[in-house]
UniProtKB/TrEMBL annotation:
The keyword Hydrolase does not apply. Keywords: Signal. SUPFAM superfamilies: Periplasmic binding protein-like II. This is Tripartite tricarboxylate transporter substrate binding protein. Belongs to the UPF0065 (bug) family. It comes from Nonomuraea purpurea. The keyword Nucleus does not apply. It comes from the Bacteria.
Length: 318
């Protein structure tokens, strides 16, 4: 009798473990996966999260990834929501530079090490943009105007990549901008068109439609080289205009902290399939990004290095 009970228990344990394993004993997510985007719909982070979710589904047949926007606190609300999923491999998060700048700003208690780095997949730079009838013709004009008066700049989040770039410009040029934070890049476009702000810092994918229509103009880009894309190739870098500033935004994936080796291995392998999909390549092209890949520990090391570089800049400005 005792042997029979033991056999039943062993079968039960084996069956439970098999629910999240394939024939080779590797882990697989159980049911639908949730991709948290820590910013509002319509901005660059939202576009990135949805594109990566679609590419994951294509790269892993049978996988279902549902996107959930958790905006607020310049990304802090979404990242905090992910903290509560520790050890749960059925959650992912669309990450970008806010995971480094938020902790350095002192606004949150978590750091990037509270999450599992899965993959860095792409990079995009910022473009300083104005209305078509703005008196500013270059980023140098903006800096000179800020030396003698008030210049209002819109930012996607108070502590994200926009804050970093404007802080860099302020420190290099000895100026101060009037900052107006918004929850996403999607809110910046109507704000600059409506005259609520004079300058916006936007990713190419967020503003290319307004460039084509002529409603907005680009002044300079924050990449170290000009864009190769024909529609953006005419925009000079900030450095070409005498502003020694270069900074790009990465686009990547986090999983919750506390995952075991099998779960990490599954998501890293799945992410490596993302860049091979037509969905991902279309997102790159449509939004004028550059493919740039790092996985697992290599992605973690990259984050540590960028965080080290940012620390003196952001602590000086706080």
């Amino acid at each position: 009798m005792r042997a029979a009970v033991l056999a039943v228990l062993l079968l039960g344990v084996t069956a439970c473990g098999a629910e999240n394993a394939n024939a080779g004993g590797e882990w697989k997510p159980r049911g639908d996966v949730r991709m948290i985007v820590p910013f509002a719909a319509g901005g660059g982070s939202d576009l990135a999260g949805r594109a990566v979710a679609a590419a994951l589904e294509k790269a892993q047949p049978g996988l279902k990834v549902t996107v959930e926007n958790r905006e607020g606190g310049s990304g802090a609300v979404g990242y905090s929501a992910m903290l509560g999923k520790k050890g749960n491999g059925n959650y992912l998060l669309a990450t970008e530079n806010a995971i480094l700048s938020l902790p350095l700003s002192g606004q949150v208690s978590f750091t990037r090490k509270d999450f599992t780095p899965v993959a860095k997949l792409a990079e995009d730079g910022g473009i300083l943009v104005v209305k078509k009838d703005s008196p500013y013709k270059s980023c140098s004009d903006v800096v000179n105007a800020a030396k003698g008066g008030r210049v209002s700049v819109g930012m996607s989040g108070a502590f994200g990549v926009d804050n970093v770039i404007f802080t860099m410009i302020e420190q290099k040029a000895g100026v101060k901008f009037q900052r107006v934070p918004f929850e996403s890049g999607g809110e910046l476009v109507p704000a600059v068109l409506g005259g609520q702000i004079q300058i916006a810092l936007l990713n190419p994918g967020e503003v290319i439609g307004q460039f084509r229509s002529g409603d907005l103009r680009g002044l300079c880009v924050t990449t170290d080289k000009r864009y190769a894309y024909p529609e953006l190739a005419g925009l000079p870098t900030a450095e070409e205009q005498g502003i020694d500033v270069s900074y790009v935004q990465f686009r990547g994936i986090f999983a919750p902290g506390g995952l075991d080796g099998r779960e990490r291995a599954y998501w890293e392998a799945a992410a490596k399939g993302v860049t091979k999909t037509a969905e991902f390549q279309k997102w790159l092209k449509d939004n004028y990004l550059q493919q740039s890949e790092l996985y697992g520990d290599a992605f973690g090391s990259y984050l540590d290095q960028v965080g080290t570089d940012l620390e003196p800049l952001l602590k000086k400005s706080s």
